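All the exercises in this workshop are built on plain-text protein records. There is nothing in a record beyond a sequence line and a structure line. A learned vocabulary of local backbone shapes supplies the integers on the structure line. The question running through the whole workshop is how a given chain folds. Here is such a record, shown just as it appears in the course material:

***
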Amino acid sequence: YAAIIASNWEKVIAEAAFKYAGAVHGDIDKLKSGENPEKALRYYAKHWGELKGFAMALQTGKQDLGDTATAINDLIGFGPAMPDGKMVSGIDAEGHFLRDQDMTLEAYQANMIALQQLLLERFDLKSRAYDLTEELAKAP
């Protein structure tokens, strides 16, 4: 029973990460619209934090995710892409965030769709809340 519970719990966490990748994508649409930018940024940061937390939780289980974990971390990054086109790329020896990675909001949205596809393939998800993977199939 323990193995079944562990497997199902991993799927629940993967489903949550999948959902929040879709939410982050939607929040970027709201940011780009320019309507109520402070509220849009607040939700974007909240949903990104949820996404990162669930992605990290996936990596703390008994199973070593290997290349999947690397891909998840590469797609999410150390911090979300910001409207100024920058994102956190690391932390220096003094604990300061380094914001020297360029990433457009559109490119980050593509990362969220790719993340959903990766999670779907790796964890055989069923619920698929905020599913954007059909957009990946439409991309040139």
The first strand starts at residue 86 and ends at 87. The first helix runs from residue 2 to 33. The chain has a mean pLDDT of 92. The radius of gyration is 15 Å.
